[in-house]
Description:
mainly alpha; two-stranded antiparallel ribbon; 2 strands
Amino acid sequence: MPLLNEDSAINSELSEGWFAVRRLVKDTFGKRPDINAILFLIGMNELGQIRDNWGKEEKQDLMHIAICKLFEGEGYYAFTHEDEEGWPHYEIIKPLPNIHLKEQEAWLKAKIVSYFKENGYI
C-alpha cells in the first residue's frame, strides 16, 4: 500500500484550502467561521450588499444564493435574473445527488475553496 495515494493527496489539498478560507475569514472578521457562516458570506458577496442585521429569512436566502452560485458551474442551477431589489434568482436544472453527509460536506467545502480561489481571495 503506497504511503500517499491519490485520495490522500486530494484530501490534503482540500484541507489546506479549507483552512486557508477559514483563516482568511477569521482574520477579516475576528471569528472562526463554520460552513454556514461562510455560505452566508458568499451569499452577501454575490448579492453585493453588506449589512450588520439580516432577518432570519434573508439569511436563509443568502445561503441559498451561495449554494446556487457554487453549483451553477456544474449544471445544477442556472441564474435567471435579478429582481428589482438586486437579489439574484436561480432555477434548479437538476437535483443535487443524494450522497452521504460526509461526502456532501467535502463536496461543499471543495466548491467553497474553488470559489475563494477563483475570486482571488486565497
